[in-house]
Task: structure prediction
Amino acid sequence: MSISPLKEARRAPGSEWLKNHPRFLEQTYLISKRFIAKTYPWMRKLSPRIANKLMVRSEEVLKGWAFNCQMCGQCVLHSTGMTCPMNCPKNLRNGPCGGVRHNGNCEVVPDMPCVWVQAWERSQHMTVYVNDIQTLQPPVNRSLQGTSSWANMLDGKDMQTPKGWG
Amino acid sequence: MDLVSNSRLERVLKSGRFAVTAELDAPDSANPDDVYKNALVLSEVCDAINATDAAGANCHMSSMGCCALLTRAGYEPILQVGCRDRNRIAIQGDLLGAAAMGVNTVLCITGDDVSNGDQPEAKRVFDFDSIQLLQVVRTMRDKGVLLSGRKLSTKPRFFIGAVENPFAPPYDWRPLRLAKKAQAGAEFIQTQYCFDMPRFKQFMQRVCDLGLDKRVYILAGVGPLRSFKGAEFMRDRVPGVWIPDDLMRRMEKTPKNKQTAEGKQICIEIIQQVREIAGVAGVHVMAYRQEEMVADIIQKAGLLPRKINQN
Result:
């Protein structure tokens, strides 16, 4: 376990084991996506405020435990081998930097495996999203920090890119 | 020739000649002569000079500052743009300023982490990653717009480069990541220091299989080892540099007073080896604080003269 003070380096007990089962997580993602797409519009009709709070809180707790989620609000986990790229101390979204150590550990946190080395290995075990790691991820919309990526996905907010992007 | 910029490096590469670039060490000084002194030696032996952007996260004169001085004196600099220190607003503004000053070539990099530098207390920015930066630079050039979509009245004409490290894990992803960089806009690539030839050959083989050597020009990074101690330091402390055991042993066996010469000899041999590898379009010579040696290496490796008509 890492003793680095960086929030990116935190790993909850059991979460690494879970992430080493990317195919299971991939299926869980597909199921929850369908479930939330059905329930969230109803929740929002009842009370937008509570619905939003519930989403944010559940992401904070569940994804926080499993993925050390940093609440960027534009989740790309399924494209990155179910390994959160915001756990990379450089917040890289498109792959590893050139500083990865010979043993596969992070340049910044020497006793932490490089997030992208893990992401690559795990992505190769996935079936549905195996090639998504080659997708070019746009710059992070920093104004979505702290919001629910599930809600943003349903609103299409997470896919919006600036006009001058490509 | 179909040229996208006024870059001399672009002309050399597109005319099929073997390119040579070298790294200028930005001074810890406010004196322009310190830049010119280093540049003078390099300009005779290379096609373009990389102005580093706080390499190793150590604070030096900025890449912008060095490039401003170099273009003023008629040199051909490569502006290195790192993602570590500036957010998207600053980066795009700097790119326009650089283009206005006559910078023709940019190199988009992630940047070494602040923890390795002289001011590890600094805030990491990393607003872009290097691949996003590549696409933004290309869009500015080709479509003439900022990331926001706002129009530029004059487009910056850049030859766009990126870096790759074939010697860092995950090895089997590196060529595919290079493909991503090419897709985002990279037109030439400078690699990390090549010491591990079998690994580099394997990497280049895969690159050629993917047809990437036709889409980007690849310049192999090379540089001399100063001593056995220096080699140990580079391997263990400089992020992303790997020196295989046989080279380490070769340095260790050499008497101390001959180690610098041996390091230089190794560098020349590596240049000669990479020239033979399919898909390698040039070399990028890096030698921290040893500009004189760079000139000697390039000459001994048989890469001179480097005259090309400037327009």
